[in-house]
Amino acid sequence: MYIKYDPLGHGRLKVKTTAQQEEAKRKEREQKLKLYTAATSGAFKKRLNGEFDEEGLKLTGEILSVNPDFYSLWNYRKEIFLFMKDNKETEFVQKLMQDELGFLESCLKVNPKSYGAWHHRSFILENMPLPDWERELQLCNTFLEYDERNFHCWDYRRFVVLTSDVDLEQELAYTTEKIQTNFSNYSSWHYRSKLLPVIFPDPTHPVRVQEDILLQEHETVQNAIFTDPDDQSAWFYHRWLLGRGRKKLQISCVHASRKTNQILVLLTNYIQVNHGHQLSVNINSSPVTGEWRNVTGTNSYSIIWILTVKDGFPGGEDLSIGVTLLTESDCTQFSQGLQLAEGQDEAWTMASYKAGTRFSIELSAAASSTMEKELEAIQELHSVEPENKWVLLTLLYLMKAIDPVHEKYQDDITEAIEKLTAVDSKRKAFYRDLKSKFMMEKILDVQDVNTRDMTLSGLDLTSLCHTEWMVLVQELDVSQNHLTSLKPLGNLPCLVVLIANNNDIDSVEGLQHCKQLKKLHLQKNALRTVQAFSTLSSLPLEDVNVSGNPLCNIENYTEALKAILPTLAPS
């Protein structure tokens, strides 16, 4: 192109200034917004008018192709397809849904992690006359090739596999391929954990995997953790392989009290009475009616259930009390009985456990030989990675599972926790709570199950765990620890005396459920207000000591406390 020289600038290609460019972009955005708003308004109007037609698909398609996360419009499209399915020929619906799958693929290219688009694709496949599941599996392969951590796509893949007749062993091989490509692919490990129990179920434990397959999996995951000890994906899978056992649901304790007219039942697992399970009571072969409540007085899931006998226990005779745990179909799952003699205020029966077995099932369901081999392997890795938190944490869990009462690995467990606190200081509180949990498990595992008086003072505890196993305790001392909360003690309905001096307690939340509490000592804690005790006003408290707390700086705090707690004995 020839442009004549012009010293005045005429004939030059005109270039827009920055201001002009911004103005042009602004006008373009305004125009797009108008079109977007008009299309949205039109779509909502059609939906309101009950117009389920192809124009509705066109309108919503214009918006969703730009913004595939507009959930209301996906719902409108679902309504259109359901209407078409009921009112159009099968061939027409098949073609329409086939086109929808193509549209969805384009939407997923805009946002591969669109909840709405993936969910809508599941809907289409579920309602399509002739779905092509093999095509869907290939689509998953394509998107996972693009982003192997796209959990939306992994979820969709599981849907495809569950809904179709895809070979599960082929799927397991696919996870192996993805893991070998990248050990850090957590989604592949997770999918593998879902496939193995289905393909290779352990006949003795339906939710577990055959022992020989587990050993092979341990070798696979060891390759990953020895290659990259800092990658958490393989460590999570390793933890899954060790597994957690399932406690059989049964009755652990039955306690009956003439004083409170209550029957208390402690179970091994949490249930919701009248929702899948029932509890029934007979006294001298006569059924007792009433409403079961947990320690908080509600009907939410609990491990402790209490029945108040409306008319009280029959007097002047020995009582034979039977409690039965029933399934939803009224089949007896477990029964437990006890005798309450004439003139006896209370009686109970508590299941006995072999030392070291009460909590071991929570740590691992793997065979002891498997755990011993794993411990040797992780100890070998620890020798070259002495400050790796995943190595230390796994060592800790393995030693605890092998030696639940800390006879063999006591010093090693303590050392591992101290090391974890140092190398992973951001989770210091977690490790201190874990140390407290292990300490309480050790104590509860060997203590007499019928104890009524318990001392946990000076143990460096930061939290209280497994308090349901202290359900019979009447006197408890948790002084000189680092406790900040007493909430777990709400599981102690028999508690009469609580000594919790020299802690960091800033609330009495939970103690309102200890209906027999008479003596409460909370000296040198972090309680700041007298009003914090208002939840305890209905308790029979006679002796409360809060000296050394910040609330003692409040003028006339003792009078204020007595006003809130009317049963306090005079000074």
Chain-wise SSE layout:
Blueprint: H1 18-48, H2 54-64, H3 71-87, H4 90-110, H5 115-127, H6 133-146, H7 151-163, H8 168-181, H9 186-199, E1 201-202, E2 205-209, H10 211-227, H11 232-242, E3 251-257, E4 262-271, E5 277-283, E6 286-288, E7 292-293, E8 302-308, E9 319-327, E10 332-340, E11 346-350, H12 360-363, H13 368-384, H14 389-402, H15 410-423, H16 428-446, E12 453-455, E13 475-477, E14 497-499, E15 519-521, E16 543-545, H17 557-564
Helix pairs in contact: 1-2, 2-3, 3-5, 4-5, 5-7, 6-7, 8-9, 9-11, 10-11, 10-13, 13-14, 14-15, 15-16
Describe this structure in words.
With 571 residues, this protein is of the alpha/beta class. The chain has four domains: 27-166, Alpha Horseshoe (Serine Threonine Protein Phosphatase 5, Tetratricopeptide repeat), CATH 1.25.40.120; 251-350, Sandwich (Immunoglobulin-like), CATH 2.60.40.1130; 360-437, Serine Threonine Protein Phosphatase 5, Tetratricopeptide repeat, CATH 1.25.40; 448-564, Ribonuclease Inhibitor (Leucine-rich repeat, LRR (right-handed beta-alpha superhelix)). It contains 17 helices and 16 strands. The strands form four sheets. It has a five-stranded antiparallel β-sheet, with no helix packed on it. A hairpin with a 2-residue loop joins strand 5 (277-283) and strand 6. The longest helix has 31 residues, at 18-48. The radius of gyration is 33 Å and the shape is globular. Mean pLDDT is 89; it is low at 1-5. One of its GO terms (cellular component) is Rab-protein geranylgeranyltransferase complex. Keywords: Leucine-rich repeat, Phosphoprotein, Prenyltransferase, Repeat, Transferase.
